[in-house]
Write a structure and sequence with these properties.
The chain has 110 residues and is mainly alpha-helical. It has one domain (20-108). Helix content is 85%, strand content 0%. It has four helices and no strands. The N and C termini lie far apart (36 Å).
């Protein structure tokens, strides 16, 4: 428990120190989501079902895409399966979702 508390304290300090880099990473993640969303716009219809599927695929494509990039890089170096694939996908999904929610709140003005 103490190790986890120390880890979150150190990571929080690193985020505060590297806030501009964290902002660039979040901006890159949101831009990637927007690009995927734009690409899927022409594929799916404008009704509610098409919009739901488009948004779902856009939300899942970016974390799985970056997760696959990490798997491929790990496989090229180690020649074995990356054991933390789903952990990376979950973390990226949580960060992307939190950023999208924060962006939505600021655009709506809630």
């Amino acid at each position: 428990m103490l190790k986890k508390l120390l880890a979150i304290l150190v990571l929080s300090i690193l985020v505060i120190i590297g806030l501009s880099y964290a902002h660039q990473i979040l901006t890159f993640l949101l831009n990637a989501h927007d690009k995927v969303n734009e690409l899927l716009q022409s594929v799916f219809s404008e009704d509610k079902a098409g919009d739901l599927i488009k948004n779902l695929l856009a939300l899942l494509a970016v974390p799985f895409g970056f997760g696959l990039v990490s798997v491929i890089a790990y496989w090229v170096v180690k020649r074995q399966w990356f054991p933390y694939f789903m952990d990376v996908v979950w973390i990226l999904w949580l960060v992307q979702t939190a950023a999208l929610i924060a962006l939505y709140k600021t655009s709506v003005g809630v």
